[in-house]
């Protein structure tokens, strides 16, 4: 059972954790966050996630009130105190208790622990369906707390039988609402959008795995039409890992079945996670 959060440098019982209503995160939705999983009582790829968190904070001109090393230590303290072998960890840095409802002040730093989240197993067997949506996130390289569009279109996705969205801008694909996107072109080359997308940590690790397996990987602008010419496609995120995509806008991608390469990359990523956990034991 999760008993504690870590709020502004202090372990705090979950029932007592709170923010004042004047926080700029509440008043204006101003803040950044990050999310990752823990296995074996240790946060996965924590160095990479903390580095990205600090980068996001810098882009919003928010100062994290501790060093990267201190933040990793606080995360471990929380995991140890709650005593859960598996968990999700969410970092949040808010704009602070503003006096004019607009200007960032001293940020509040929250480390929250959640139950370990997984994606339905059957989705990896059958793949998922996506719909395209014309949208580009503001400050896409920062992981901000602004998810208005992604949350607002959930009903539209469900009504149209889709599992997820793929954003595009000026006929160039970007990312999903909470995931990065990859495709395998007819030659077997792996391609993923590079500009104006969140630098996903799972994305980065899957690219490493792909190159170790001998695949050619291109990070570049990707035209929307390339998605419909691909032989395979998949999404990546901390919870999803490598999740195959079999349909876009009602059109089959490749054979319309989960592809062999997607499965191979998924297994390779899981093996990388296992090696990371074992190295931390």
Explain what the structure shows.
This protein has helices at 24-27, 46-59, 68-82, 121-126, 148-152, 154-159, 201-212, 224-229, 260-280, and strands spanning 4-7, 10-13, 31-39, 42-43, 87-94, 109-114, 128-134, 164-169, 172-173, 180-184, 190-192, 217-219, 232-237, 241-248, 251-252. By secondary structure, it is of the alpha+beta class. It folds into two domains: 4-114, Aminotransferase class 4, branched-chain amino acid transferase, N-terminal domain (D-amino Acid Aminotransferase, Chain A, domain 1, 2-Layer Sandwich); 123-277, D-amino Acid Aminotransferase, Chain A, domain 2 (Alpha-Beta Barrel). The strands form two sheets. Strands 7, 8, 9, 10, 11, 12, 13, 14 and 15 form a nine-stranded mixed beta sheet that branches. It has a six-stranded antiparallel beta sheet with strand order 2-1-6-5-3-4. Strand 13 and strand 14 (241-248) form a beta hairpin. Helix 7 packs across helix 9 (260-280). The two termini are 22 Å apart.
Mean pLDDT: 97
In total, how many domains does the architecture comprise?
2
Structural class: alpha+beta
Biggest sheet descriptor: 9 strands, mixed
* CATH topology heading of the largest domain: D-amino Acid Aminotransferase, Chain A, domain 2
Tally of DSSP helical segments: 9
Number of strands: 15
Q: Give the fraction of residues assigned to helices.
A: 25-40%
Q: Can you identify the CATH superfamily of the largest domain?
A: D-amino Acid Aminotransferase, subunit A, domain 2
Shape: globular
CATH class of the largest domain: Alpha Beta
Strand content: 25-35%
Low-pLDDT residue intervals, each spanning 5 or more residues: none
Question: In the CATH classification, which architecture of the largest domain applies?
Answer: Alpha-Beta Barrel
**N to C succession of SSEs:** EEHEEHHEEHEHHEEEEHEHEEEH
Round the Cα radius of gyration to an integer and report it.
19 Å
Oligomer: single chain
